[in-house]
Design goal:
Layout: H1 20-27, H2 31-52, H3 60-85, H4 93-108, H5 113-137, H6 142-165, H7 168-172, E1 188-189, H8 194-202, H9 209-219, E2 223-224, H10 225-243, H11 245-255, H12 257-262, H13 267-293, H14 305-315, H15 320-335, H16 341-365, H17 369-388, H18 394-398, H19 400-412
Antiparallel strand pairs: 1-2
Helix pairs in contact: 2-16, 3-9, 3-10, 3-13, 3-14, 3-15, 4-5, 4-6, 4-13, 4-14, 5-6, 5-13, 8-9, 10-11, 14-15, 14-19, 15-19, 16-17
Length: 432
């Protein structure tokens, strides 16, 4: 006699497990969603321009200036990405950029700007290797080592500038203890026909159309060759880090170096390579400042861009696309002070009111009533400020990039996910 099994005895099928990658994919925006957000942002900015009359907000000149200011920040952010994806916190980016400015200015005026560019990259790599020796080989705390690199670079370049630029031929050609003689220009590129056509459309100040023309016009007019190189480096970094076996091994060193070593990965070598590349990218950002922005080395010309680059990297959640957006945002805010900044920043107050109001509505919809109330109150305060003034004081305009840095980091802090082993000391054979 055989036993029969009823349907009620059969256990229900287990729910399919959702992998971590699937969860991440759900959280990411699709290409269509990203496009909708970009179009919506452009529509909102265009509406603010029309209401306020701040035509500089989306002008070709504003976008061109923003692009030039975003490149060194973006390169610093990309440098931080390479280092921290391998598990090494690189707060020494500012010092590596300083080394890049000096190297580019020192050799650039004596030979050619292209050799100066290579020298700036080389000086940045040297700074990166110092940081790698301290953190990877000797296990020095990453923050302490980064601060030491910043101080060492600042002191060394000040001493060398007095040594090489203050007397003799350099002094006769415009050098002094704080500045190198000027170097030749690297040149820039303008797309003929397209640039002038977009500028003509921009001058009509049509809603949305002229704004789009101004943005595109700024991207095809007087573009430095280093800017084009920076774009290629962003794309290349994404491909290398996320589409090659080398990139996978390097990222594994920043996530779980013990597991990576157990699979045969030379963790030390990958960390050294990542920090050296990081230094070279930071040096390139410094060389951009010396050869494109000012055509000479100037003491203090980095202006904290290494730190802002770190903020852009964190805003971008350690991803190339996100940090590029962060660098663009900081570059745009920095460019405001160059082009009728008081009135333009005043117009942005209205944009901030709208964004805060939308945020308050979204938080209320999600039943986060405390956050919704705070956002609404801040929106009301900013609106009163906008209505009672005609322009923003110049001192506040100069501080706009740093205010934007603080706001962006505070708003994006809840969704950040840095490499798990970032900043941790690691010793070879640790997992045995």
């Amino acid at each position: 006699m055989t036993a029969t099994t009823t349907d009620t005895d059969t256990p229900p099928p287990a729910a399919p497990a959702v992998s971590g990658e699937a969860k991440k994919a759900r959280g990411r925006l699709s290409a269509g969603q990203t496009l909708m957000i970009v179009v919506g942002a452009l529509f909102l900015v265009s509406a603010v321009r029309v209401v306020t009359g701040a035509d500089q907000l989306t002008s070709g000149g504003q976008i061109s200036a923003a692009l030039g200011l975003a490149v060194p920040i973006g390169l610093a952010a990309l440098a931080g990405l390479w280092s921290e994806r391998a598990g090494v916190v690189n707060i020494g980016l500012e010092g590596m950029m300083i080394l890049g400015t000096f190297g580019a200015g020192w050799l650039g005026w004596q030979t050619s700007p292209w050799l100066g560019l290579l020298c700036g990259i080389g000086f940045g790599v040297l700074g990166g290797l110092v940081h790698a020796v301290a953190t990877v080989t000797f296990g020095v705390d990453h923050i302490v080592s980064g601060v030491a690199v910043n101080l060492l670079a600042l002191g060394a370049t000040q001493y060398l500038a007095k040594l090489f630029f203050a007397e003799g031929v350099p002094a006769s050609k415009g050098g002094n203890p704080k500045q190198s003689p000027p170097a030749e220009s690297l040149g820039d590129i303008t797309v003929p026909g397209l640039s002038s056509g977009l500028h003509s459309i921009e001058q009509h100040h049509w809603f949305l159309v002229s704004d789009l023309a101004g943005i595109l016009g700024g991207l095809v007019t007087n573009v430095s060759v280093i800017t084009i190189l920076a774009v290629l480096l962003f794309v290349g970094s994404w491909w290398v880090l996320w589409r090659t076996s080398f990139g996978l091994r390097l990222r594994s060193c920043g996530e779980n170096p013990v597991a990576a070593e157990s699979l045969g990965v030379n963790v030390y070598a990958h960390k050294y390579a990542a920090v050296a590349i990081s230094g070279g990218l930071a040096g390139l950002g410094g060389a951009f400042l010396a050869l494109v922005t000012s055509h000479s080395y100037l003491e203090g010309q980095t202006g904290g861009r290494g730190y802002i680059g770190l903020a852009a990297m964190i805003f971008g959640n350690w991803r190339p696309g996100g940090l590029a957006m962060g660098a663009g945002l900081f570059g745009f805010s920095d460019a405001l002070q160059l082009r009728n900044g008081g009135e333009t920043v005043h117009a942005l107050l209205l944009l901030l009111v709208v964004l805060l109001a939308l945020l308050a509505g979204w938080k209320a919809y999600r039943k986060a009533f405390l956050q919704a109330t705070i956002s609404a109150v801040i929106a009301a305060i900013v609106l009163v400020w906008y209505l009672l003034t005609d322009e923003v004081p110049g001192d506040f305009v100069g501080a706009t990039p740093y205010v934007v840095t603080l706001l962006v980091l505070s708003l994006s802090a809840q969704r950040l996910r840095m490499p798990k082993a970032n900043g941790m000391r690691y010793r070879k054979g640790q997992g045995k």
